């Protein structure tokens, strides 16, 4: 055991499984985010009011949030590899339906909900990768597998271009079958469950976690950071098209820039949170994000709003990593359970954000009220974090042995 602990990251774990987890996560996030950029193109075939557009891009996020709990439970019971394989096979259903079946907006809503199975992928991908690695390499392993959220960038960059090239948005759903089929083949051959996979959890353990206040606090914090990131990633193409008159491809390209900021600063947030404390990092990130969203509410010229949204998305992405720097400090023994619950809450935040922007735009004819409300929600999260930080310092330190307090708690 001592020798195993001295192994470097590249000497430990199982690299084909880590790569397979990344690919599964990446392609699944790409599919999960297809309707965000395509909504502007689809509106040409099915005219939609602002609320209907918001519903279209919000439903996959809601589906992902709910189905994450299902896939998380299955990963615990039957193993993350088989769960991931089932997830990929079921993901083919909305792709085939979107390609060959949809002929009305209501049918498209059905496809949108079913796309949630792709969004639930991290409930299997992250445990599959993480269970292979010792504690000292968990952060890097989870970071590499979790970098698959960059799949959203693939969707915003290529979905509308492919729709334009093939003359049909339905063709994009058909084309998406190719990469997920290739990943399924690789994954089935090379990915493996860890021999050290923990025993399945009892349903009573979920109930025990949900009785604890801190679990709900983390849900609220992640609801704002991840929910803000994924909600904006899915809605910004509509925003840029409606507010600034950009074409579908142009609006998606600019959205890509903002999504890159949120995707690639997640590990940075976790790294910095390790250094200065998750609560301090979150408070700084929430403060800047609130100011940026308030800045967007003034609807400044396009170059300025892109810079503001880039910084805001960067803060929300980094905030995702900061939240999960705090979670293990409070829930060491129940980290798997809490990760699933908190992740599902993040999806609910992403579902709510497009609805806030879409409904208020329809009611007022402006995006200003919606972004002001989003800014206030982020500011409220800052206040919650400040209050909880003081309580955590007292309660967490008091509950730990004196000789490990200084090294173990960094809130």
From TrEMBL:
GO BP term, pick one: nitrate assimilation
Name of the protein in its database record: NarK/NasA family nitrate transporter
Domain Major facilitator superfamily (MFS) profile: 17-393
Keywords: Membrane, Nitrate assimilation, Transmembrane, Transmembrane helix, Transport
Transmembrane segments: 21-44, 56-75, 82-102, 108-128, 140-159, 171-194, 215-236, 248-269, 281-299, 305-323, 335-357, 369-387
Subcellular location: Cell membrane
Cited Gene3D superfamilies: MFS general substrate transporter like domains (1.20.1250.20)
Source lineage: Bacteria, Bacillati, Bacillota, Bacilli, Bacillales
Keyword Transmembrane: yes
Transmembrane listed as a keyword: yes
Classification via InterPro entries: MFS (IPR011701), MFS_dom (IPR020846), MFS_trans_sf (IPR036259), NO3_transporter (IPR044772)
Mode of membrane association: Multi-pass membrane protein
GO molecular function: nitrate transmembrane transporter activity
CDD domains membership: MFS_NRT2_like (cd17341)
Sequence similarity: Belongs to the major facilitator superfamily. Nitrate/nitrite porter (TC 2.A.1.8) family.
Gene Ontology cellular-component terms listed: plasma membrane
């Amino acid at each position: 055991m001592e020798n195993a602990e001295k192994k470097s990251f590249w000497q430990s774990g199982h690299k084909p499984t880590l790569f397979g987890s990344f690919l599964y996560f990446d392609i699944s996030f790409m599919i999960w985010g297809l309707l965000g950029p395509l909504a502007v193109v689809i509106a040409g075939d099915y005219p939609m009011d602002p609320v209907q557009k918001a519903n279209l891009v919000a439903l996959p996020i809601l589906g992902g949030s709910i189905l994450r709990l299902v896939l998380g439970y299955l990963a615990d019971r039957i193993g993350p590899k088989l769960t991931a394989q089932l997830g990929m096979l079921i993901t083919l259903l909305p792709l085939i339906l979107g390609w060959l079946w949809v002929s009305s907006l209501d049918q498209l809503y059905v496809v949108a909900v079913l796309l949630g199975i792709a969004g639930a992928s991290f409930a299997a991908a992250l445990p599959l990768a993480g269970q292979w690695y010792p504690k000292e390499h968990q952060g890097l392993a989870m970071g590499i597998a979790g970098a698959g959220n960059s799949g959203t960038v693939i969707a915003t960059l290529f979905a509308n271009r492919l729709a334009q090239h093939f003359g049909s948005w339905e063709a994009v759903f058909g084309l998406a079958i190719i990469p997920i089929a290739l990943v399924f083949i690789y994954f089935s051959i090379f990915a493996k469950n860890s021999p050290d996979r923990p025993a399945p959890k009892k349903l009573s353990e979920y109930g025990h976690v949900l009785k604890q206040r801190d679990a709900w606090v983390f849900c609220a914090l992640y609801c704002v950071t991840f929910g803000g990131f994924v909600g904006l990633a899915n809605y910004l193409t509509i925003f840029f098209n409606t507010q600034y008159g950009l074409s579908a491809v142009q609006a998606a390209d600019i959205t890509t820039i903002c999504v890159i900021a949120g995707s690639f600063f997640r590990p940075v947030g976790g790294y910095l949170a390790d250094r200065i404390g998750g609560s301090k990092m979150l408070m700084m990130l929430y403060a800047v994000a609130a100011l940026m969203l308030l800045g967007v509410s003034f609807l400044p010229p396009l170059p300025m709003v892109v810079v503001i949204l880039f910084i805001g998305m960067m803060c929300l992405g980094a905030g995702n990593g900061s939240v999960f720097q705090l979670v293990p400090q409070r829930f060491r023994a129940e980290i798997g359970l809490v990760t699933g619950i908190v992740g599902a809450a993040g999806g609910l935040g992403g579902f709510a954000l497009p609805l806030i922007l879409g409904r208020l735009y329809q009611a007022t004819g402006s995006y200003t009220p919606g972004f002001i409300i989003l800014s206030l929600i982020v500011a409220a999260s800052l206040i919650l974090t400040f209050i909880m930080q003081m309580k955590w310092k007292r309660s967490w330190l008091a509950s730990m042995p004196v000789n490990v307090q200084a090294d173990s708690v960094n809130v």
